[in-house]
Write a structure and sequence with these properties.
The chain has 167 residues and is an alpha+beta fold. It contains four helices and seven strands.
Length: 167
């Protein structure tokens, strides 16, 4: 079941995220996040943007959210997306369901574009975003250093609304 995030989800979200911090280059964060810090991050995001979890049998299998892509006012109609799944739930279509829910909510709220920043080698995320209609729009070479490796980042974009200016 996909639902909006709740404060009691913080521990599960922290555990999922910290697995990626410790064992992957999918996030460029290098130190585990404390639960209090994650709670603060979640609170900040949900005060302005959509944030969803996928719950199954009382367990959080994954989560996704959107947040400001850039801080300048002209970017206010563009959001960056994030999606993470617990390892045992990967490859089951949960990420796609979460992202479709997020995309629909962003459309409903009137946002114009979504950006996904994906680290090189993250083929599952590349594939997911391409299936959802995102198009690769940039390639930044060797912009992140993690586990003594320089890493590239690719930006993918999805246009949500027709080309009409909004205030």
């Amino acid at each position: 079941m996909i639902r909006e995030v709740r404060p009691e989800d913080t521990g599960s979200i922290t555990a999922i995220y910290n697995e990626y911090v410790a064992h992957s280059v999918i996030t460029f964060e290098t130190e585990p996040v404390r639960e209090e810090e994650m709670r603060s991050r979640i609170t900040g995001i949900v005060s302005h943007f959509p944030y969803f979890v996928y719950e199954t049998e009382g367990k959080i299998a994954g989560y996704c959210y959107a947040h400001a892509w850039k801080e300048r006012a002209a970017y206010r109609h563009t959001l960056e997306t994030t999606v993470y799944l617990a390892s045992e739930y990967q490859g089951k279509g949960i990420g796609k369901q979460l992202m479709q829910t997020l995309i629909n909510e962003c459309c409903h709220r009137g946002y114009h574009a979504l950006i996904a920043c994906i680290t090189e080698g993250n083929e599952a995320s590349n594939s997911l975003h391409q299936k959802l209609g995102f198009k690769q729009v940039s390639h930044f070479e060797k912009v992140g250093l993690k586990f003594d490796r320089w890493l590239d980042v690719f930006d993918y974009e999805l246009i949500l609304t027709p080309e009409s200016p909004k205030n």
